[in-house]
Write a structure and sequence with these properties.
Blueprint: E1 6-11, H1 12-23, H2 34-42, E2 47-51, E3 54-55, H3 58-65, H4 68-77, E4 95-98, H5 104-117, E5 121-126, E6 130-132, H6 136-140, E7 160-162, E8 168-170, E9 183-185, H7 191-205, E10 210-213, H8 221-232, H9 241-252, E11 257-260, H10 267-272, E12 277-279, H11 281-289, H12 292-298, H13 303-307, E13 309-312, H14 321-325, H15 327-338, E14 343-347, H16 348-352, H17 371-383, H18 388-391, E15 393-396, E16 399-400, E17 410-417, E18 420-427, E19 433-437, E20 443-449, E21 454-457, H19 460-465, E22 467-471, E23 476-482
Parallel strand pairs: 1-2, 1-14, 2-5, 5-10, 10-11, 11-12, 12-13, 13-14
Antiparallel strand pairs: 3-4, 6-9, 7-8, 15-17, 16-19, 17-18, 18-23, 19-22, 20-21, 20-23
Helix pairs in contact: 7-9, 11-12
C-alpha cells in the first residue's frame, strides 16, 4: 500500500444483501460486479476491508434476533423491518473459516485475486479478545477462556455463563460496558490460549494482506490483568501477545498490515508493539464535538504518531457521519481526514450517503444512494490520490487575520513533494470565515483550486502579502501550486 493509504470498509453481508436487492438474486463474493472494482480503483483505494466474513455463531444469531435493544434501534429507523434480516454479530466469531453463505474460502480467494490485479490489498477482521459463546473450543477446551470451573463465581455472576458441560465461562467485556453476552472471554495468561489464537491468525494471514484487530488494547497484559485479575491472577506474562503475534506473522509475510482498534490513550504503546496503524478516536471526537483550536492542538502531536494513525469520520461502531456531524460538516470533516498524514478510512455506506447507522446485526438494504454525497467523495478522493499526498512532506500552516478574527476557524496545512505543493484550507465552523493565506514559496503566476477546477492569477503583491480568503461555513479549498 502507499504511504497514507486509503482504506474502504465494506460491511460484507449488508453489501451483498444490497446487491441481492438490486439484481433480484443471491450474491456471494464470487459474484461481485466488475463495476464495483472499477469504482474502488478509480477512487484511489489502496485496500478493501471486508468486515464480517467469518462463520457465524448459531447462538449469536438467536441472541441477536431476540434482542429487544437491537429491535428497538432498527424500529426507530425502519418500523416495518423483518426479524429474518437480523443476523449474528460479526464480532462473535464461531470459527475463522469463511462463511459458506458468502461463498466460502475459494470465493474469498477469487475476490482477493481480482483486487490484487488492480493493485488493491484485502484486509479482514481478527477478534483477539473473545470468541462466540458457542464456538467449539468453549466445549472442547474451556481452559482457553476465563472460567471458574464447575464452581459458580462468587462475584460478578452476570459476567459468566454456564456451558453444557457445567463450566462457568466469562463473557467478553470492555470494562466500561456490560458484557457481550454472545461471546466467551479468552484468557491470555494461558500460553495455550496464545497459541490457539496465533494459529487462527496464521490461518487468516493466508487469505489476506492484513487484519484490523478488534479492541486490541483489551489483550495488553496490564489491561487484561486489570479486568480479570480476580480470576486469572496478577502475574504478567513476560511478553505481550501482540509482539509475539506480529513477529510471527511477519516472518512469513513481511509486508502484512496490522491495524489496531485501540482507545484510552494506549495508541502509542500499541504502535510501539509494531502495529502499522492505530485508531485515532481522539481526532474523531474533536472533529465532532470540539473547536478548530482543539483540532489544531491534536495535529501538533509527534509526526511518527500521526503517520501511524488511522483517521475516520465513520465506521461500523460510530453513528453515520451524515447524522453525527450534519451534512456540510461531515463533508468538511472527511476532507480533513483525507488530507492528513496516516491511513484514511472510509466506510462504503458512508460514500453512498447512508443517513443513519443500523445495528451491525441488521443487514437489509433500506436506503437510497445520495448522488451528491457520492459525487463529493469521488471528487475528494480523486484529488487526494495525487502523489504529493502520499509521498510528500506535511506541515501545518497559519492563516493570518483579515480583521475580524474569524481566521481562527480556518484549518490549514500543506504537502510538498519535489516541485509540487498542495495547500488545504477548511472553514470548520457554521459561520463565514476569512483570512490571509501566505504564498511564501509559491512559484509561477497562478495556483489551481481543485474542487472548482479554477485557476487563480498570483501577483507579486500576493506573494509578499498573501492571498485573501473568504470561506462559506464548512467550505474547503485545496490549492495546487508550483514550488
Amino acid at each position: 500500500m502507499r504511504t497514507n493509504p486509503h482504506i474502504l470498509e465494506v460491511d460484507t453481508r449488508a453489501w451483498l444483501k444490497r446487491l441481492e436487492s438490486k439484481h433480484g438474486r443471491p450474491f456471494t463474493l464470487r459474484d461481485i460486479p466488475e463495476q464495483f472494482l472499477d469504482t474502488v480503483q478509480s477512487m484511489g483505494f489502496d485496500a478493501v476491508w471486508l468486515m464480517g466474513v467469518w462463520q457465524q455463531s448459531p447462538k449469536g444469531l438467536e441472541i441477536a434476533q431476540n434482542s429487544a435493544e437491537i429491535q428497538t434501534q432498527i424500529r426507530a429507523i425502519k418500523p416495518d423491518f423483518q426479524p429474518s434480516d437480523i443476523t449474528a454479530s460479526p464480532y462473535a466469531v464461531y470459527d475463522y473459516t469463511v462463511d459458506e453463505l458468502l461463498g466460502g474460502a475459494e470465493a474469498l480467494k477469487a475476490f482477493r485475486k481480482r483486487l490484487k490485479e488492480r493493485g488493491i490489498s484485502l484486509l479482514l477482521d481478527f477478534v483477539g479478545n473473545h470468541m462466540a459463546i458457542d464456538c467449539p473450543a468453549v466445549s472442547t477446551a474451556p481452559d482457553l477462556f476465563v472460567n471458574t470451573g464447575t464452581a459458580e463465581p462468587a462475584h460478578h455472576k452476570d459476567w459468566f455463563f454456564k456451558t453444557p458441560s457445567g463450566v462457568y465461562v466469562a463473557h467478553g467485556r470492555d470494562p466500561y460496558f456490560a458484557p457481550w453476552t454472545d461471546t466467551a472471554q479468552l484468557n491470555y495468561f494461558n500460553p495455550k490460549t496464545r497459541q490457539f489464537m496465533l494459529n487462527n491468525l496464521r490461518r487468516i494471514s493466508q487469505w489476506c494482506d492484513g487484519v484490523r484487530c478488534d479492541m486490541a488494547m483489551l489483550t495488553l497484559n496490564k489491561v487484561h490483568r486489570d479486568i480479570w485479575w480476580e480470576f486469572i491472577g496478577g502475574t504478567l506474562p513476560k511478553e505481550e501477545f501482540w509482539r509475539q503475534a506480529l513477529d510471527s506473522i511477519r516472518e512469513d509475510y513481511p509486508e502484512f498490515t496490522f491495524i489496531a482498534e485501540v482507545y484510552w490513550g494506549l495508541e502509542w504503546e500499541v504502535q510501539e508493539l509494531g502495529f502499522d496503524y492505530t485508531y485515532d478516536k481522539i481526532l474523531y471526537d474533536r472533529l465532532r464535538f470540539s473547536s478548530p483550536q482543539d483540532i489544531k492542538g491534536h495535529l501538533r502531536a509527534e509526526h511518527l504518531y500521526q503517520m501511524r494513525s488511522i483517521r475516520f469520520t465513520s465506521n461500523h461502531d460510530e453513528e453515520e457521519s451524515l447524522k453525527a456531524f450534519g451534512r456540510e460538516k461531515s463533508l468538511a470533516a472527511s476532507t480533513i481526514i483525507a488530507t492528513l498524514p496516516g491511513a484514511r478510512l472510509f466506510q462504503f455506506f458512508q460514500l453512498l450517503g447512508r443517513p443513519a447507522r443500523m445495528p451491525l446485526q441488521y443487514i437489509h438494504d433500506w436506503f437510497t444512494k445520495d448522488e451528491s454525497v457520492f459525487a463529493y467523495y469521488q471528487k475528494l478522493l480523486s484529488i487526494v490520490s495525487a502523489p504529493a499526498f502520499h509521498g510528500g512532506q506535511w506541515s501545518l500552516c497559519d492563516i493570518r487575520s483579515a480583521g475580524d478574527g474569524s481566521c481562527g476557524n480556518i484549518l490549514s496545512w500543506q504537502w510538498k513533494q519535489m516541485n509540487t505543493g498542495k495547500v488545504i484550507v477548511i472553514n470548520y465552523s457554521d459561520t463565514p470565515a476569512q483570512g490571509i493565506l501566505s504564498l511564501k514559496g509559491v512559484g509561477g503566476q497562478e495556483i489551481k483550486e481543485e474542487f472548482s477546477n479554477t485557476k487563480i492569477a498570483i501577483t507579486e503583491e500576493n506573494k509578499t502579502q498573501g492571498l485573501f480568503l473568504q470561506l462559506k461555513p464548512y467550505e474547503s479549498k485545496i490549492f495546487t501550486f508550483v514550488i
